[in-house]
Amino acid sequence: MFKRFIALSLLACVHSFAEGGELNLDLLQNESHCKSVSVNIFGNASHPGGNPYRLLNERNDGIGMTCYLNKEKTRFLFGNALTNSQFGLSIAGGIGQGITLVEVSPIRFDVGISVTALSYEKRNGKMLYGVMPFPYAKLIVDLPGNMGYVGITQTYLSGNVRGIRLRNAEISISLMKSF
Prior knowledge:
Elements: H1 2-20, E1 36-46, E2 59-68, E3 75-83, E4 89-104, E5 107-121, E6 127-142, E7 148-156, E8 167-178
Antiparallel strand pairs: 1-2, 1-8, 2-3, 3-4, 4-5, 5-6, 6-7, 7-8
């Protein structure tokens, strides 16, 4: 199931780049590269298989920001800081590409992938660092007046990457400003 999820995410990104052209990083030199910006507020996360021994933190509070590089909000830069499932601090930033599979206003379903630089503090205080791809699926409910959206995101990082197992669903509220 997760292999299909990853394959679908990659296929969606390849299709999106083919339809919309290459992601032009020269846009970052232009002051008005963000078509819209959102402030992201993170809340609860849940973990596959549950949390039977209460060893995982299911309150992943945090805040972040996303710069959308196109009006469809499918190409983006982001930075987040939040409490992770090991009761430590995670700081992540990167670039992503997605595609909207289904849209019935005000609800849409996106899939995509982001390349993320991650700093992850474990319960024992040990810090882990890495750059890795994160496929995702996101259910989005747009707020009235283009104010933002409420999203439920499922992320998946295959296997154990240097002691980090990331398979969680996360709820976020994003407040948006368009330019």
